[in-house]
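Hey, I'm writing a tutorial for new members on how sequence and structure tokens pair up, and I'd like a real worked example in the thread rather than a made-up one. If someone can provide the structure for the chain below, I'll link this post from the tutorial.
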Amino acid sequence: MTAYIIRRLVYGVFVLAGVNVLTFALFFFVNSPEDMARAQLGAKRVTPAAVEKWKRERGYDKPVFLNDKMPGSRKLTETVFFDKSVRLFAFEFGASDQGRNIGYDISTRMWPSLAVQVPAFVIGLAVYITFALLMAFFRATYVDFWGVVLCVLMMSISTLFYIIGGQFVFGKLWNLVPISGYDAGFDALKFLVLPVLIGVIGGIGSSSRWYRTIFLEEISKDYVRTARAKGLSESRVLFRHVLANAMIPILTGVVVVIPLLFMGALITESFFGIPGLGSYTIDAIGQQDFAIVRAMVFLGSVLYIIGLILTDISYTLVDPRVRFS
């Protein structure tokens, strides 16, 4: 297992390096530092002196990959690629194009994101699996039929509909919770209820139907027929055997997203005015602050690779037959 984890980490570093180089190329070949400067300065006619000053203040005046004017290793370190891309591997995110400390912003904004994402993830997982088990238990009945119909209908509705509809009904019409905003401490609860509720409701259709498919596939296997032949009740077969053996495909989709909870939900945080990493990324895209976008792409890649490794490790916890060499 140790050798396997080390091997996966090495693979992850190469994948991360490839993503990092690709991201750098997209930002600096499609949008040159001059384009970034003109976009940030916000004027149609910007003097060359102002552009050069903006580039110098943010380190974009250096050569891209190789600095022939510097001696030794500084030929590589005194470059835009090293400052804006390689330093990310040490989690040195630097400053945004507007002068903000990206590392500080991430460390403060991750908590509102977690405050929304973790409850929605835990509650949603319980709701989706329970609903899927209910449809599997009453398979080939009206409960199963109308449950699938409900899932398809909910899958067909955009998340924006749930957000706008929830804000109108619960926030404006009934005045139960604030429409948007955020506060620290326990005062944040009133701002989190609606985003969490909508996050759970928005995932019922696709997630419950997927879990139902997994459970129905397990039900058709030989060990289930053997358990029934031994006289076990249908509920015990379903909850004690089917659910346990369905954990590997469930973990594949669940564990991998746990690290990504730090990244927040882009649309939800933007609509509800939650100062998390999701809205942070959306605002950076709108302001064309490419330093923040690059940092968030890198962080998302790191978290996704960690999620894949955790998924593999979790297999051995739920199924002793799984071994990695």
